[in-house]
Design a protein that fits this description.
Elements (H helix, E strand, L loop, with lengths): L14 E6 L8 H10 L3 E5 L5 H4 L4 E10 L3 E10 L7 E10 L13 H21 L15 H9 L4 H12 L3 H14 L14 E8 L1 E2 L11 E2 L4 H24 L3 E9 L7 H15 L6 E5 L8 H9 L4 E7 L3 H6 L6 H13 L4 E8 L6 H14 L3 E6 L7 H7 L11 H17 L3 E6 L10 E5 L6 H8 L3 E5 L4 E6 L4 E6 L4 H6 L1 H16 L6
Parallel strand pairs: 1-2, 1-3, 6-9, 6-16, 7-8, 9-10, 10-11, 11-12, 12-13
Antiparallel strand pairs: 3-4, 4-5, 13-15, 14-15, 17-18
Helix pairs in contact: 1-3, 4-6, 5-6, 7-8, 7-17, 8-9, 12-14
GO molecular function: 4 iron, 4 sulfur cluster binding; tRNA-2-methylthio-N(6)-dimethylallyladenosine(37) synthase activity
GO biological process, one term: porphyrin-containing compound biosynthetic process
InterPro entries: Coproporphyrinogen-III_oxidase, Elp3/MiaA/NifB-like_rSAM, HemZ, rSAM, rSAM_horseshoe, rSAM_sf
Length: 539
């Protein structure tokens, strides 16, 4: 299924066939398929045989891939055969070659031979499709994954300059120059935060994530494992008892290996959905168990203003929370209702003022471009209102169709059109408008990530005023610091250096499964961290 809608093209392509040339031993069909989906073209299936020039229909293309490898060089040739109505068949060909490092070493891009071949195939397909269609719907080129800045950090670790990095992104990954500049600038800004692999003491600096999987209601676009409160008290009590065990087990590990917690992040869900007394009990345990002289951030997601009141705000203040997220996503009442929110724009404004009055120094606000029924003018009004509130951080998201969300359910049911989503050009205009407002209030981009099925193949960017970057957001995205995960759906990421290596363990998303199997999750996490820090000696 092609999620990304294609704009008007010079050659309108309805479907494609793929065949690998005889002797090609690496399966490159998935690489071709994924790349064609970026152009909004579905695979028709394997080519049924015969002569393409005689049988190829208008609106269809046949892609042929040839791969040759020897001990020193890999070469890829992609051929696209097509015909337009009333014309003779035409053929476009693109070849790419790349030197291979001596086995078993990997390339400077950390690729083995198979990965290198697939990248070259994707690159050739993108270049041919751009030429064939006259369109460029892939601003990020063939870069894959959630964290494109990780590749930039790898290049910077190798000593490449800003210009060398951006040139590689454009030439080797077909990234548009503006996007290459964006992520390279962000990565260079992050360098002082990223742990130095030659300093083992910094490897004992960690962050802690605590997941509270409850919300006042479920939003249309949300795929997070959240449950709607109020929950039956006995079920909620079982969760609270389990997560307290989880927290205490993590505290034991931190104390045993003398780890230094830099950031504490309580997310979900919406943690402030809990009653004030339950929230206070968890914050007290977390504060006294993890907070130390090097803890610079104590963050709580309070994304829904309908989850807060004066008592809960006082709890946040009392336990030293110094960063709060209020996530309106939009400042349009009509859209809040459509996406399933149970509050108004005025509620957002009122809660923001109360958090300011409580003296919590840093407030983040999330905005989503591309929400159902919204126009560029709606987004401009949202940004105007948020700029007047003047938060320290803004996280600008592009709407993504997430598996498990009500919005994705509409895709599967063939009913996406009823949500009246803005098209790619409108969403791009929204992002440009938002970026202008953000620049006017003196913010800079400090972290970035991407997701599957994002409108227009775009990105999410975190912006901050000077000296207010959220260090946890940088560390969780760049994966250069160990994150200890607590609670349902939480992941623990154990990071070792020289070279950078990541090992992970994850808890169940489902709360009953998390409670039932908690002993297993605790044992797995503690074993993972003990293996890492049992060998980590101070210099």
């Amino acid at each position: 299924m092609a999620i990304v809608r294609s704009a008007a093209t010079k050659v309108k392509i309805k479907e494609f066939f793929f065949t690998a040339a005889a002797g090609t031993t690496i399966d490159v069909a998935p690489a071709v398929r994924d790349t064609m989906l970026l152009f909004g073209v579905d695979e028709a299936g394997p080519w049924p045989g015969g002569t393409p020039s005689a049988e190829l229909k208008a609106g269809s293309v046949l892609i042929t891939g040839t791969v040759n490898c020897d001990e020193q060089l890999v070469s890829v040739t992609i051929t696209v055969s097509f015909r337009t109505p009333g014309t003779e068949p035409e053929v476009l060909t693109k070849s790419r070659c790349w030197p291979l490092p001596p086995a078993p070493a990997k390339s400077t891009d950390n690729e083995d031979v198979t990965g290198l071949v697939k990248r070259l195939v994707r690159l050739a397909v993108v270049e041919l499709m751009r030429k064939l269609t006259g369109e460029n719907p892939v601003p990020w080129g063939i870069l894959r994954g959630v964290r494109p800045t990780k590749l930039v950090h790898r290049y910077l670790d190798q000593g490449l300059t800003y210009r060398q990095v951006t040139a590689k992104l454009v030439q080797d990954y077909a990234v548009q120059p503006a996007k290459a500049d964006l992520i390279t600038g962000i990565a260079i800004h992050q360098r002082p935060v990223i742990s130095n692999p030659e300093n083992r003491r910094r490897m004992k600096n960690v962050s802690v994530y605590v997941g509270i999987p409850y919300c006042p209601s479920r939003c249309l676009y949300c795929s997070f494992p959240a449950f709607v409160l109020p929950e039956q008290r006995d079920r909620l009590e079982a969760f609270l008892q389990a997560i307290i065990r989880d927290i205490n087990s993590a505290i034991d590990i931190v104390q045993k290996f003398k780890l230094s917690v830099e950031s504490i992040y309580i997310g979900g869900g919406t943690p402030t959905s809990l009653a004030a007394a339950d929230l206070a009990g968890l914050l007290e345990l977390i504060k006294h168990g993890f907070q130390g002289i090097n803890t610079s951030e104590f963050i709580v997601e309070a994304g829904r203003p309908d989850s807060l009141n004066d008592e809960k705000i006082d709890v946040l203040r009392q336990y030293g929370v110094n960063r709060v997220s209020i996530n309106p996503q939009t400042m349009q009442d009509k859209t809040l209702k459509q996406i399933g929110r149970q509050h108004t724009v005025q509620d957002i404004i009122d809660i923001f003022a109360k958090i300011r009055q409580a003296g919590i120094p840093v407030i983040n606000m999330d905005v989503i471009a591309g929400l159902p029924g919204e126009s560029a003018a709606d987004l401009a009004d949202t940004m105007h209102q948020i700029a007047r509130l003047n938060p320290e951080n803004i996280t600008l998201h592009t709407l993504a169709l997430k598996r498990g969300s009500k919005l994705m359910d509409s895709v599967y049911a063939g009913a996406l059109s009823r949500h009246n989503l803005p098209n790619e050009k409108t969403t791009q205009a929204m992002l440009a408008i938002a970026a202008d407002y953000i620049a006017q209030i003196g913010m800079h981009p400090y972290y970035l990530y991407r997701q599957k099925h994002m409108t227009g193949n775009l990105e999410n960017i975190g912006y901050a005023k000077p000296a207010t970057d959220c260090l946890y957001n940088i560390q969780i995205m760049e994966e250069r610091q160990t994150i200890i995960g607590i609670g349902p759906a939480a992941g623990t990421k154990a990071v070792s250096s020289g070279p950078w290596r990541l090992q992970s363990s994850y808890n169940a998303k489902d709360v009953p499964a998390y409670i039932k199997n908690l002993d297993i999750y605790l044992h797995t996490r503690n074993t993972l961290l003990s293996r890492l820090y049992g060998d980590c000696k101070e210099d």
